[in-house]
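Notebook entry, structure prediction.
Reason for the run: the old model in the group folder had no record of what sequence produced it. Starting over properly, with the input documented here first.
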Amino acid sequence: MFTKTKFSSFSLNQDLVTSLDSIGWDYCTSVQKETIPIALSGRDVIGQARTGSGKTAAFGLPILNACNPSGGLQALILTPTRELANQVAEELNNIQGNYGIKILTVYGGTDIEKQARQLKAGVDVIVGTPGRVMDMTERKHINLDNPKYFVLDEADRMLDMGFFPDIMWVVERMKNRSQTLLFSATFPQEIIDSANEFMNEPDFVLTNTEQLDIPPIEQYIVRVGRSNKLWVVGRLLVGMDEDDQTIIFTNTKRMVELLVQRLNKHRFNVEGLHGDMSQNQRERIISNFKDGNSSVVIATDVAARGIDVDGITMVINYDVPDDVDSYVHRIGRTGRIGRKGEAWALVGRDDVPQMGKIIATHSLDVSEVDAPELPDGVDRDPVKKQEDNSEVADVFGMVPIKLETTSLSKNQIVNQIVSALNCDELAIGDISFDTDYTIVEVHSKHATLAIKSLKSKDLEVSVLTN
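New structure, fully documented this time:
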């Protein structure tokens, strides 16, 4: 994926060069090597590159290089979703360091008046979704006459989501646009036709054929609900050797902060890394990790890009990544130079389809296992396991409970649970009888207490997991 071309070989301003150096970015990916020189020359670019190939920096560095921290809108980047808008903005902030470009995300589901105040205060680059950018333009909070640079990210997803009429609405109002960069993993004919309408003799960059390297490491899946992911992490961390180093990946900055808070509370020495941190904070954390002064870092995909450490022995996917390639990029940080390496994925019921897609796409050899046992000398879990029935509940929240008896009638079972829990009968669903056992559905809110109540009657009771 990485080439032998250094970022320092490009004609980037010194602030960006210094920032890239400080976060440990030395060598370009293929799409960055091919795109950045063309974009720096001012020409339009159509790039074919999948998520995880480094395309955000491929368009982000030329855009940042062309802008200056003036507080006036100079560039607009459109993405299909708010999640991607946040990821792009996070990476741009990560790579610009102290350059001072003000980047603002603009998408639906947020306070319009607050967003209007932020826009009025000044912005250099907007990263947004088409609908909200249109809305804020019509409300006169965004003037599309101003930006000279336009980026359309994940154009094929935009097409699938029906955004192309909105995109054309935006483009038609960008009267002073001088450069357009368009990126897509695939190119349906509709995209080609549209691009020909609003792009000026674009150069094509095709890097979608590059293969991802799968490291020769042990890969494990633990099926666990969100309530007990921290319990599994505790067992994994307490089993680390003194010289081991671990990265824990999450999908959001908020989850980074929560995990740091909770694991520190359980006496684990961990540090978090995400794009909202100051440059000095990020540099300190990465430096500590590289020097071996810290052993566990919790990070988002974007923030972890600056971590290049050969001694990482374990990667934990606390969240299953939304993109199939991101998983390979994550686990590729361990098992380097012939060293041992393990990758663990904590997979809840809702994560199963995505994890299956990741495994199938890359033909991965992944073992489904239970949470690891506590190491010798450790007799108590560092994080207590929680009662969690959500993984076996159906879409209505009903948990199947197995009674190893058929001697009770439906009325007796209902009366026992309702009287013991003082709950509504609606908390109890279907009751069915087999040859030698009974299945009772109880809402997950009451399932644990219902089991205790039934056990108090000397019944053998368990949650049905299959």
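Summary: The mean pLDDT is 88.
The old model has been moved to the deprecated folder.
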